[in-house]
Batch of 2 targets.
Target 1
Amino acid sequence: MRKIDKKIEQQIVTALTQVCDQALAKVAGFEWLTHSVNYQQVSSSLLVTCVFSEQEQLRQCLADEQDVLFQQWIVQALAKQGIKLKNAKSQVQFDSESACAEQHGGNWGKRLAKQ
């Protein structure tokens, strides 16, 4: 990893940690989030996955349009770090622990590799 890539990664982690803490306090069922990125095309390749405990909690989040809230939080936090998403709607995804357990035996590495 190049020095500039490490700097970008640190900026992403700082922003997403802020969002994670905010979501843990305000969104029922939210558990954690993760990301993947191609450092040569950050604004178009950054993919954030927000994970809920149960599929039903995720459904409720989407029904209450809290996905829009997550997108706003993520866009704002990344902007503070100088990172802009090309298309937040498609670059912020949602998943659940229960769906991963059912479909991939709880193997998040395998599940996220398919995204």
Note: Strands lie at 30-36, 47-52, 92-96.
Target 2
Amino acid sequence: MRLNEISYNDAVPIDGYGTGFFRIGGKRHDGAVLVMPSGVSGWGGFEDTAAVLDHVGDIDVLFVGTGAEIAHPPVAFRTALEDAGIGVETMASPAACRTYNVLLSEGRRVAVALLPV
């Protein structure tokens, strides 16, 4: 088997998660987080579209982690992002973390918004 080292360039991978927190780029972040190409910040939930819309042109897809279980985001949230040209993929937060890391390692223009598990 051949193993290849993954390079994430300037973006940070999600190292892990637990009850109420995420470990991203080696640092612990409590509560909901937004991981963008420019860095990691707190996220205000589905009402907070401004932080994502500031990155129109920088990302193609936003993965939305809805906590321990998959749930549908509000229509207004999805519509605001899709109207701006950002694809929205919703899944449980553990799956969103894994999917984000895989696509990030491929050099894709992705971001992730995560509600804690």
Note: The CA atoms of residues 16 and 23 lie 5 Å apart.
